[in-house]
C-alpha cells in the first residue's frame, strides 16, 4: 500500500520548483539584458576599459604572468604611462587568458577579442548564483540544525510524544530552510537587474 506524503512535503516540492524557476529566469535575464549592445551594435568594444583589458590580456598571453606584473604601459594614462602590476586587478585578464588557452587546446576556433566581449555577461550570470548562495548563508541562523536535532532526540516517557516533537521540529526546520532559499533566489533575481551592476558587465 502506497504511503501518503505529509502536506508539508507537497509544499516543499512546490517551493523548490518556484525557487528553481526564479533562479533559472534570473540567470537567463542576467545574460540576455547584457547582450543588447551586441545585438544592436555587433560584438565590438564600446568603452575604453574593455579595450584596455583586451590589450592587457594579449600582453599576458604573449609575455607571461611575471612580465605582465612588471609591465609599464606607455600607451595608457598618457603622457605619464601606467605601471600595470600595481594598478589593475589581474584576475580578469588571467581568467580570460585561461579560457582562451583551454578553448585552443580543445580545438575551438574563437578569437581572444570575442572572448573579451562575451566574458562580462558570462561572469555576471554566474554571479547571480553566487549571490543566491551568499544570501542563503547569511540568512540561516547558526545552530538551527542543532536545535532541530535536540528536539528530535529528547527523551520522553511517551514514544508518541517524542515522535510528534521530532516531526514538528523537522517541519519547522524545513519551512525555515525553504523561506531562506526563496529569499536567496529573490535576491539573485534583483541582482540580475541592478542598473549599476548591469552597466559594469555589459558585453563589449
Write the layout of secondary structure elements.
Layout: H1 7-32, H2 36-41, H3 48-63, H4 65-69, E1 72-73, E2 82-83, H5 91-105, H6 112-139, H7 144-153, H8 159-192, H9 195-200
Antiparallel strand pairs: 1-2
Q: How are the strands of the largest sheet arranged?
A: 1-2
Mean pLDDT: 78
Radius of gyration: 25 Å
Structural class: mainly alpha
Number of domains: 1
What would the principal axes of the Cα set say about the shape? elongated
Q: Which regions have little confidence, pLDDT < 50, spanning 5+ residues? A: 1-7, 144-158, 167-172
| Helical coverage, percent range | over 70%
* Individual helix count: 9
Beta-strand segment tally:
2
Element order, helices and strands? HHHHEEHHHHH
What does this structure look like?
With about 200 residues, this protein is mainly alpha-helical. It has one domain. It has helices at about 5-30, 35-40, 50-65, 65-70, 90-105, 110-140, 145-155, 160-190, 195-200; strands spanning about 70-75, 80-85. It has a two-stranded antiparallel ribbon. It is elongated and about 60 Å long. It starts with 6 loop residues before the first helix and ends with a helix. The model is unreliable at about 1-5, about 145-160 and about 165-170 (pLDDT under 50).
Amino acid at each position: 500500500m502506497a504511503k501518503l506524503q505529509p502536506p508539508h512535503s507537497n509544499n516543499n516540492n512546490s517551493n523548490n520548483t518556484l525557487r528553481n524557476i526564479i533562479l533559472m529566469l534570473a540567470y537567463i535575464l542576467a545574460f540576455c539584458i547584457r547582450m543588447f549592445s551586441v545585438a544592436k551594435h555587433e560584438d565590438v568594444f564600446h568603452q575604453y576599459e574593455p579595450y584596455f583589458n583586451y590589450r592587457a590580456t594579449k600582453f599576458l598571453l604573449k609575455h607571461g604572468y611575471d612580465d605582465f606584473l612588471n609591465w609599464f604601459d606607455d600607451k595608457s594614462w598618457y603622457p605619464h604611462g601606467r605601471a600595470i602590476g600595481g594598478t589593475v586587478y589581474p584576475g580578469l585578464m588571467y581568467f580570460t587568458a585561461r579560457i582562451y588557452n583551454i578553448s585552443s587546446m580543445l580545438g575551438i576556433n574563437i578569437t581572444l577579442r570575442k572572448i573579451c566581449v562575451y566574458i562580462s555577461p558570462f561572469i555576471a550570470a554566474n554571479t547571480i548564483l553566487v549571490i543566491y548562495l551568499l544570501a542563503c548563508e547569511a540568512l540561516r541562523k547558526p545552530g538551527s540544525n542543532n536545535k532541530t536535532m535536540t528536539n528530535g532526540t529528547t527523551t520522553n516517557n511517551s514514544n508518541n510524544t517524542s515522535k510528534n516533537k521530532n516531526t514538528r521540529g523537522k517541519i519547522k526546520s524545513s519551512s525555515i530552510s525553504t523561506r531562506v532559499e526563496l529569499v536567496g533566489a529573490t535576491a539573485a533575481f534583483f541582482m540580475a537587474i541592478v542598473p549599476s551592476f548591469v552597466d559594469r558587465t555589459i558585453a563589449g
